[in-house]
Amino acid sequence: METFLGFLNSEKERMSHLVILGDLFEFFFGFKETSSIRGVFPFIDYLPILEGLQRLYRQGIRIKYFEGNHDFFINSFFSEQFGMEVEVYPEGGEENLEGRRVFLAHGDSSNSGQWTNSFFRCLLKNRWAFGLIQFAGPGLSRRVARALSERSYQKYHTVRPSTPPPGFKTFAHQKFLEGFDIVILAHSHFPEKAEESIHGRKCLYFNVGDWMTHRSYLRFTPPEGFKLERYNGGDIGTRGHGDAETRRNGDREIGR
């Protein structure tokens, strides 16, 4: 947590945008005040990060949050709890950067090799599930989420692959065929960069990887373009991991 706050503080003077590609926390749900016990904030342990984002917002930095598979119904959370306007996207979204079409998403439904992600997204990302989580309240919901997260980690992350999952590049290729020039995803926990030529267009795919292991993020600086980097390190080329993007004075950083 301290490292991430240090990263935000080190970038704040040159950043104009911060894009978070989901799963910033283990479990993040936009609980209404009625779910809190006697007005107690449901995510006390998240407060340092949330207050850090609030400081960036008050400084004039624009923040976008693309929900991941650990984020639920947070569209009004930031405004109701912290008085800051954060653009929240439950699914992927499109940006226009320097005249190029960019598709951004967390990426949990992008890897066809892990169909369970799409299944659980449909199961949990609906108003019935939101109502059940709201009714259960923060305590029980977080205990269940922690148990499910541990099971998922044991299944997918105990053995670290030597190469990135191929499904994300396949997804990016399809987006290129739809007319997008750049695709930016996360979720794989494997930072990478790939180039592809589609009908004479130079198309780029980035995966920002993850923060916990790689401290990786993607920087966009016009007119130079994109650069996959690691905090307290240099450019990591085609290696990396994370879910965030930043832009400073025209620079944007994307990461998880």
Question: How would you describe what is shown here?
Answer:
This protein has one domain (2-92, 115-160, 207-255). Helices cover 32% and strands 25% of the residues. The chain is built from 7 helices and 14 strands. The protein has helices at 2-11, 47-58, 77-82, 115-124, 127-156, 167-177, 211-214; strands at residues 17-20, 28-29, 62-66, 71-72, 87-89, 93-97, 100-104, 182-185, 192-198, 201-207, 216-221, 225-230, 244-247, 252-255. Strands 1, 3, 5, 11, 12, 13 and 14 form a 7-stranded mixed sheet that branches. The protein has a 5-stranded mixed sheet with strand order 6-7-8-10-9, covered by helices on one side. A two-stranded parallel ribbon has the order 2-4. α1 packs parallel to α2 (47-58).
Task: Please provide a brief summary of the model.
This protein is α/β, with parallel strands linked by helices and 256 residues long. 32% of the residues lie in helices and 25% in strands.
Q: Say how many strands there are.
A: 14
Order of helices and strands: HEEHEEHEEEHHHEEEHEEEE
Structural shape: globular
Q: Number of DSSP helices?
A: 7
Give the secondary structure arrangement, pairings included.
Elements: H1 2-11, E1 17-20, E2 28-29, H2 47-58, E3 62-66, E4 71-72, H3 77-82, E5 87-89, E6 93-97, E7 100-104, H4 115-124, H5 127-156, H6 167-177, E8 182-185, E9 192-198, E10 201-207, H7 211-214, E11 216-221, E12 225-230, E13 244-247, E14 252-255
Parallel strand pairs: 1-3, 1-14, 2-4, 3-5, 7-8, 8-10
Antiparallel strand pairs: 6-7, 9-10, 11-12, 11-14, 13-14
Helix pairs in contact: 1-2
